[in-house]
Write a structure and sequence with these properties.
single chain; 87 residues; alpha+beta; 3 helices; 39% helix; 24% strand
């Protein structure tokens, strides 16, 4: 079964809360979501794909980019990604 890819780029201590939210929401779909957390300043592999990021950024399936994440947004877009992957 195809899996949705959820990536979060953590750029600051404030973003750590969103990182936790991404992990919690993805945990509700254990076999349907792959989660990759990138930390600015430590990880550099995301820069080639997405460029320099200065805000906490949620990326779904490598294409949809959200630069102002919230818990409700994370829940909605992850659910949509899982539904698309399953279709």
């Amino acid at each position: 079964m195809p899996r949705a890819l959820v990536e979060f780029i953590n750029t600051c201590p404030h973003c750590a809360g969103f990182e936790r939210d991404v992990r919690e929401v993805a945990a509700t779909y254990p076999d349907r979501v792959d989660v990759h957390i990138h930390v600015a300043g430590r990880d550099v592999d995301y820069i080639r794909r997405y460029g320099v990021v200065s805000r906490g950024t949620l990326i779904i399936n490598g294409t949809d980019r959200y630069e102002e994440p919230s818990r409700s947004l994370i829940e909605r877009v992850v659910a949509e990604a899982v539904a698309e992957a399953g279709a």
